[in-house]
Amino acid sequence: MRYGRFFAALAVCLAVAAFEVIGGLRAQSIGLIADAVHAATDGIAVLVMLAAMIISARPANRRKTFGYGRIEVLGAVFNGALLLFVTAVVAAASVHRLIFPLHPEGGVMAVVSAIALGGNLAGALLLLQGVRRSINARSAFLNVAGDALGSIAVLVAGLLVIATHHAWLDPAFSLLVCVLVVVAVWHMIREAADVLLEAVPRGVDIGEVERAIRSTSGVDSLHELHVWAIGGGANALSAHVLIDAETGTTGALHALRRTLRERFDVTHVTLQVERERCEGP
After folding, report:
1. Which of 98, 117, 157, 160 could pair with 173 as two cysteines, CB 3.0-4.6 Å apart?
2. For 189-199, b where at least 16 C-beta lie within 10 A, e where not — what string?
3. 56 in a structural domain
4. 229, 235 Cβ separation under 8 angstroms
5. What's 39's domain CATH number?
6. Cα–Cα dist 260/209, whole Å
7. Which of 34, 36, 29, 39 is nearest to 160 (CA)?
8. Which of 23, 45, 78, 30 is nearest to 176 (CA)?
């Protein structure tokens, strides 16, 4: 099944969340509860990713001529906003626990977080496929990978609680988990914003693209060069290209399209061919 590993990752995330909630209540640990909430949002992230992948696979039509690729970007923004909201709630609860401490059971924290860590690593491996092609898949992967770091933090906190009997360690490490989540969400939302603002895709050097076009046989110059990500892993380019009067247009266009596809993974190319430079801004 095409989406089988993603459904498996969803099941793992929900199982980890349920296990950590039970363990967190048993251990009276805000750190485990924070990690459980993060794991639950991981499940939502994977669910949104699946829905976005299924919808974005629909073909283009007369109204949506580029297709539904940017549904994945919207899914990533939704995941990021949800994670920030949940993280704010958990951070507030952690601060409250710092002010009014409650001694957790370090042994239960350590055991539960160690098992949860194994589940998070398994979920991250299941989501690894597709990370390079989809921003939404990357957002779900980052959620689960961040949760694995959170489980490590709670594991360390549990061991320190056993060794020192300091109750403040539990909410302090919970706040550390919140910081890890915010850092991951910031990178995810910034990448989504770049797509929505039609910025040059990550990994594409606009200077290299320009040099590749100018070095193509028959091309005198170019202007109005734009490169952007459509979504769903597809990149687009448009440019005005000045072709030498003695060069055949068809041959130059074929060479340009082949270069752009093979070197820069640009699948949608729109070139306005000119024999003399047009007037423009």
Report:
1. 157
2. bebbebbeeee
3. yes
4. yes
5. 1.20.1510.10
6. 8
7. 29
8. 30
Closest by alpha carbon to 147, among 9, 6, 55?
9
Task: Report the phi/psi class of residue 130: left, alpha or beta, with left for phi > 0 and alpha for psi in -120 to 50.
Answer: left
CATH of the domain at 226: 3.30.70.1350
Strands (E), the chain: 219-231, 234-243, 266-274
**Residue given tokens 């995810």 in the structure block:** 188
Domain extent, residue 260, equals: 206-274
Residues 125 and 236 in one domain: no
The answer on 159 and 24 residing in a single domain is yes
- The answer on 178 and 221 residing in a single domain is no
Domain assignment present for residue 280? The answer is no
Domain count, the chain: 2
Q: Which residue has the higher pLDDT, 237 or 46?
A: 237
The predicted-structure confidence for 151-202, as pLDDT tens digits, reads as follows 888 899 889 989 998 888 888 888 887 887 788 778 778 878 888 888 888 7
Buried b (16+ CB within 10 A) or exposed e, 217-232: ebbeebeeeebbbbbb
Element spanning 157, H or E: helix 135-164
- The residues pairing with 239 across neighbouring beta strands, listed in sequence order, are 271
Q: Are residues 133 and 11 in the same domain?
A: yes
Q: What is the arithmetic mean of pLDDT over 207-227?
A: 87
CA 140 distance to own-chain centroid: 6
Residue 265, domain member (yes or no):
yes
